[in-house]
Amino acid sequence: MKIIAHRGFWKKPQERNTFAAFKLALEHGFGIETDLRDFGSEIVISHDIPDQNAVTLKKFLRLVHETNTCVTLALNIKSDGQQQLLSQESLLKGLNCFYFDMSIPDCLGFRNHKLPYYTRFSDIELEPCLYEESVGVWLDCFGSNRLNIEALEKFINDGKRVTLVSPELHGFEYRSYWKSLLSFFRSYPTVAKSVELCTDYPLHAKEYFCE
Q1: In Å, how far are 10, 34, 99, 130, 209 from 72, measured between CA atoms?
Q2: Which of 123, 136, 140, 196 could form a disulfide linkage to 163, CB 3.0–4.6 angstroms apart?
Q3: Which CATH class is domain 2-210?
C-alpha cells in the first residue's frame, strides 16, 4: 500500500502545505495530497483563498522532479476552471498524479481534457459520479471511523485504484480503522497495490503497515 501525506509531511499544523513539508514527504518516499487554486494567471497551492505568498504549482513540481518522481500526487481541486492550465503544464508529464474533489460540472471538464481524476464515495455520497471513466475512487467517511470494506472490495474488483481517507483527517480515532485495514490486507494480500492511504501520520502508517 502507498502512503499519501496529507498536505505534506509536517509536525505542526502551521507547516501544512509548505515547501518544507513537501520536501520532507518526498525525501521519505511518501505521496502528497495538496490543494490547487488559481491566483492571477497561474495555479498555486493553498487550501484557503490564496495570496502572493502561496507556493506555486511550478515550484512544487520542480521539487518533485528534483527529489522523487515515483510518488503519487493527489491534487485536490479547490477552484473550478483549472483544466486548461493543468493540461498545458509540462512539468506534470510523466508524474503519477490524479485530480479529485472538484464539483461535478468541473469534473466533466477534467474528463473532456482526458486528465486523470478520482470520483468520490462516502457515507453521504453513495453514488460516485462519472465512475466508469475515473481512474480511481476517493473513499471517505464523514460520520464515523468505520472502514467500508464492502465498497473497498467493489471498487478494487472493478479495477479502480482507491485512496482511503484516514479518520484523523475528520477528527476521529484512527487506530481501529487501521487495524481493520491491516486485517483486510492479510486476508487479501494482492489487493494492497491498488490502495493508498491519505493520512496526517505518514511515518506512523508506514511503520504500522510494514510490520
Answers
A1: 17, 11, 11, 22, 18
A2: 196
A3: alpha beta
